[in-house]
Design brief:
- With 382 residues, this protein is α/β, with parallel strands linked by helices.
- It folds into 2 domains: 5-192, 3-Layer(aba) Sandwich (Rossmann fold); 227-350, Cytidine Deaminase, domain 2 (3-Layer(aba) Sandwich), CATH 3.40.140.
- 37% of the residues lie in helices and 21% in strands.
- It is built from 14 helices and 15 strands.
- It has helices spanning 17-26, 35-43, 51-55, 70-77, 82-90, 106-112, 116-121, 126-136, 150-158, 164-192, 246-260, 285-295, 313-319, 334-340, and strands at residues 5-11, 29-33, 48-50, 95-102, 142-144, 206-211, 221-225, 237-240, 267-272, 275-281, 303-307, 324-329, 347-350, 361-366, 369-374.
- α2 (35-43) links the parallel β2 and β3.
Length: 382
């Protein structure tokens, strides 16, 4: 076994990586790294060794193969057992105690280009393999996939708090991250092939909101987005008002689904308990709002408004005459926002351009499983 203790560092997002590696050097760790990360660390006076110096094998295939080598994975996966220790010692395999990895930006690449080759090249192979190996061997190895955990890692090491529970939490985070990453990839392939109902399916979700409670005050809840989500309540801008509740999000999503159907009309809907209590097309947006409101002004109290066009001062003035929980619209005039903000608790949601839904199926949970069906995108002439 090579003498000393090692950390392997291979990151696409290099923010704060120099600082954490300097801290690890100070704590006695030698850094092993790959090409781009190695160059950055070397330029910043970090004590770092290039992976190829450990493996005695160069990076090949334009960087497709860097860390996939027994001398790297053996150093991560060996257990604290005599026969394992003997093997790694005989083969001069380094004692890797820390793995810091973040992955190629596959999801961002899908959002930014339709170039198939570029998308495929941003499927990370070596990174997830390192993460899975380190997470599997959490009894001995610390795995860090989130840059927000860099200071936590350093603090735990300085305070001799590198506990089994800490390592297991890092491992769980790594497995969750790899699962989400792989789900984004499988979603891309399924969409590309128009495969809506594969025999095996992974649905990746990422938490974006910790909600105060769920449908009822005694229920805990969080809000999650799926990979490459577009035009969603959860990716919109909140321009004013209180934080969204679980029930607000459900109703606002119904409003969004409705206004998305009428992007070229002056359309308004008012939603209460996931059900429209008013919907109308008007000569202008103010006219549409008044028609929708007067359809059932009693049920509209405390409801969620959906509007298909930019909200103007005139529309905002009408809205603030009554009590509503949320307003959802593509955009707002500055004057309209200031008027709506006079209702301090009114949530003002700016969706942006109304585009077709990126999800072709909808999912509902049942005990022990889920139901998946095609979204109902049929249209009726009114």
């Amino acid at each position: 076994m090579l003498s000393g203790k090692f950390a392997i560092v291979s990151v696409y997002d290099k923010e704060n990586i120099v600082d954490v590696c300097k801290e690890l050097n100070f704590l006695g760790y030698r850094i092993i790294s790959t090409s781009g990360t190695y160059k950055l660390l070397k330029e910043n006076q970090v004590d770092v060794i290039e992976v190829s110096s450990i493996t005695n094998f160069p990076e090949i295939l334009n960087g497709r193969v860097k860390t996939l080598h027994p001398k790297i994975h053996g150093g991560i996966l060996y257990k604290d057992k005599d026969n394992h220790k003997k093997q790694v010692a005989e083969m001069s395999i380094p004692d890797i105690e820390i793995v810091i990895v973040n992955l190629y930006p596959f999801e961002k690449t899908v959002d930014s280009t339709t170039n198939f080759e570029e998308i495929i090249e941003n499927i990370d192979i070596g990174g997830p393999t390192l993460l899975r190996a380190a997470a599997k061997n959490f009894e001995r190895v610390m795995v860090v996939v989130d840059k927000n955990d860099y200071p936590v890692l350093v603090e735990k090491l300085k305070n001799n708090e590198n506990t089994l529970e800490f390592r297991m939490k890092l491992a769980a985070k790594a497995f969750n991250h790899v699962a989400y990453y792989d789900a984004a990839i499988s979603k891309f392939f399924n969409n590309y092939l128009s495969e809506k109902f594969p025999v095996e399916n992974s649905i990746g979700i990422k938490k974006v909101l910790e909600l105060r409670y769920g449908e009822n005050p005694h229920q805990k809840a969080s809000a999650y987005i799926t990979p490459n989500t577009q035009c969603s309540i959860l990716t919109s801008k909140v321009l004013g008002g209180k934080e969204l509740s679980y029930n607000n999000i459900l109703d606002a999503d119904v409003a969004l689904e409705m206004i998305r159907r009428f992007p070229n009309e002056n359309f308004c809907c008012i939603i209460k308990h996931n059900t429209p209590c008013g919907a109308a097309i008007g000569n202008d947006l103010k006219d549409a709002f008044l028609k929708a409101f007067n359809s059932d002004s009693v049920s509209a109290f405390g409801g969620i408004i959906g509007l298909s066009k930019k909200v103007t001062r005139e529309v905002a003035e009408e809205i603030t005459k009554y009590f509503f929980e949320v307003v959802v619209a593509p955009s707002y005039d500055d004057e309209a926002v200031e008027i709506l903000k006079t209702k301090k608790n009114l949530r003002i949601i700016e969706i942006g351009k109304l585009i077709s839904c990126s999800e072709e199926v909808e999912v509902r949970s049942i005990n022990g499983g889920i139901l998946i069906q095609e979204k109902d995108n049929s249209e009726e002439n009114l």
